[in-house]
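Page 42, continued from yesterday. The earlier attempt failed because a stray header line got pasted into the input along with the sequence. Redoing it now with the clean sequence only.
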Amino acid sequence: MYKTEIDNYLKKTGYREFVPKAALFDMDGVLYNSMPNHAYSWHHSMKAFGIEMSEADAYAHEGMRGVETIKKMVKEQKGIDITDEESQMMYDAKSNLFATRPEAKIMEGVKELQRKMKADGLKIVVVTGSGQQSLLDKLTKDFEGLIEPGMIVSSHDVKRGKPNPEPYIKGLAKAGVNPWEAVVVENAPLGVRAAQAAAIFTVAVNTGPLPNKILADEGADLIFDKMTDFRDCWHLLSQR
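This time it went through. Structure tokens are written below.
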């Protein structure tokens, strides 16, 4: 059991118990090994608009709504504020390029993890900053029996994306649980920050190139290097 980590979570939140009844999963880099495709698409599509966005930038901004990421990058590099329509046009270019990339594989171990969670009575919710319909449509097919259509929070459902807690607060509402009754599975610094702002126990699975320290500094309660490691250790977290 991760007694120390759970006790630390209870201490910092002020909650009296941690009883997981729902698991809130990020999508890119958690359910799918899709971040290399996103990083490529961000870099090459933004370059066409005169915006430099490296692979590291893509990982650092992961989880934020795409239109918000673009507005931020344009402001930082060009010193101007662009409209929602302009930002959406640029995001559409990124999405179109992403659609031409090889299909991302399901993250090894994640379906087995979800089956274990389901067997323990947990509801599964997806909370993603993505608004790319091609990816969202794949979810219920690829995770049939694990993810239901009504249990997905995307960028279309929120006004403020990660690192704002709104997406995870909506995820809690979909599951019908309190923060101390959920666990978040993330891989992105901004996603971890959002989950922590929603006061949810956060497991970070570092499937990208960023150092673990960045995830720890954002407040991750547990960090694993691989999804298969978390899968194999789930029983230690669920048995409280």
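Notes: The beta strands are 22-25, 123-127, 152-153, 182-186, 201-205, 222-224.
Reminder to self: strip header lines before submitting.
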